[in-house]
Write a structure and sequence with these properties.
The protein is of the alpha+beta class and about 400 residues long. It has a four-stranded mixed beta sheet with strand order 4-1-10-9. A four-stranded antiparallel beta sheet has the order 12-13-11-14. Helix 4 packs across helix 6 and helix 11 packs across helix 12. The protein is globular, with a radius of gyration of 22 Å.
């Protein structure tokens, strides 16, 4: 009997409201802090307080984080999450939510997603909000996520770019991409934030499911409006089998785990009429989306035509998004697909201190035995450039320091 959650957004949604609602519904604050500690970031804290918004009581999530001196790009956020000790499924879904944010901001400002300065949504508190909600759903054993239609409010809000009309342009872009339903609401405040919109766009199906309600939680917003500024979540169960489209990441369900970690989908297409740099860009976008791997192979087609085989290995729940991306970014008229069974070694990212600077090293284990380690290319390449050293020397130094650390 799958566990469901329904986000009842009668007064909108923000990242801290979502986190507060999960905590009010029974999420352990200590367990949440333990998951967030896996990000290996300093300077943040999460606390709670009970309160009222008009006539409804609930929990306010208090996320404390210092303001950042520099704005992050999508690649910076990805690096933080990838370097964490979070479960792979949680990393993937958190990165997916941030990717949706970047794509929405890029669409609004007319620039590629990778060039977006994240401003508020790349700040540390937003990372805590998004990773906290993704991890919280897993801790609660949630397997399916649903959401109501959204009230959007009206007026203006202040952002890093200046005054923005409400709903914020990025919010509308996110909701348009998710085909999210909205309801009429003229409240003169921002009711749905970009972080809240991205969480629902990346995690939820917009409908109320049939369910047996077992718990209800209320997450309080920061403002005390003339209406209860509260996000309500319903937790419950259903007799039917969970669908692949809206399973929550990291849920403790054997079918979900097999689907996501054992049987990803291989997408392939042959292309003979597109420049190589455009195909390379498609690969970059697939990896940013959350593909497990993506690659190009030179092939020869009929009549001796040179061509390229584009392949992408994606988690099952990202198949539709990956297909849409490939249809948009390549000249293909169709894709082949098949489920892939595979053996996967345990992997752990370890930060190693070297005289040149820190390097992340990927540690490999199989059936409890150490099977080697590999320094991360991006870290080694950066240090090689900064210090004018051959890349192979930086690799060797990182591996030697890793071995010393492992032997201690």
């Amino acid at each position: 009997m799958p566990n469901l959650i329904y986000f009842d957004c009668f007064s909108g949604i923000s990242g801290d409201m979502a986190l507060g609602a999960l905590l009010d519904a029974g999420l352990s604050l200590d367990a949440l802090r333990a998951e967030l500690a896996k990000l290996q970031l300093d300077g943040w804290s999460v606390d709670t307080e009970r309160g009222m918004r008009r006539y409804l009581s609930g929990t306010r999530a208090l996320v404390h984080a210092p303001e950042q001196a520099t704005h992050r790009h999508l690649s910076d956020v990805q690096s933080i999450i990838d370097a964490s000790a979070l479960a792979p499924a949680l990393k993937q879904r958190a990165i997916q939510v941030f990717t949706l944010l970047a794509e929405a901001e890029g669409q609004v400002h007319g620039i590629p997603a990778g060039q977006v300065h994240f401003h508020e949504v790349g700040a540390l508190d937003a990372i805590i909000d998004i990773v906290g909600v993704v991890a919280g759903l897993a801790l609660l054993g949630i397997e399916e996520v649903y959401a109501s239609a959204l009230p959007l409010g009206t007026g203006w809000t202040r952002a890093a770019h200046g005054a923005l009309p409400l709903p914020a342009p990025a919010v509308l872009a996110l909701l348009a991409g998710a085909h999210a339903p909205t309801i009429s609401d003229d409240t003169p405040f921002e009711l749905v934030t970009p972080t809240g919109a991205a969480l629902l766009a990346g995690l939820a199906e917009f409908r109320r499911p049939p369910m047996r309600i077992t718990r209800v939680g209320y997450g309080l917003g920061a403002r005390d409006l003339e209406r209860p500024n509260v996000l309500r979540v319903w937790l419950g169960t259903t007799d039917r089998e969970p669908s692949a489209e809206n399973r929550a990441p990291g849920a403790d369900n054997s079918q979900f785990s097999i689907l996501n970690s054992q049987f990803p989908i291989l997408l392939e297409t042959n292309i003979d009429d597109q420049p190589a740099e455009q195909l390379a860009y498609a690969i970059e976008q697939l990896l940013a989306l959350g593909a497990l791997d993506a690659w190009l192979t030179p092939i020869q087609m009929k009549k001796g035509r040179a061509a390229t085989l584009l392949s992408a290995l994606v988690p099952a729940e990202l198949e539709a998004a990956a297909v849409a991306l490939l249809m948009r970014e390549t000249s293909t008229l169709g894709l082949r697909r098949r489920a892939i069974e595979r053996h996967v070694a345990e992997r752990e990212i370890v930060a190693v201190a070297t005289p040149l600077g820190p390097v992340r090293v990927k540690r490999k284990r199989w059936q409890g035995q150490e099977m080697g380690a590999s320094p991360e290319y991006e870290d080694c390449a950066r240090l090689a450039r900064e210090h004018g050293l051959p890349l192979r020397e930086v690799y060797a130094l990182a591996l030697s320091k890793f071995k010393v650390t492992s032997d201690e």
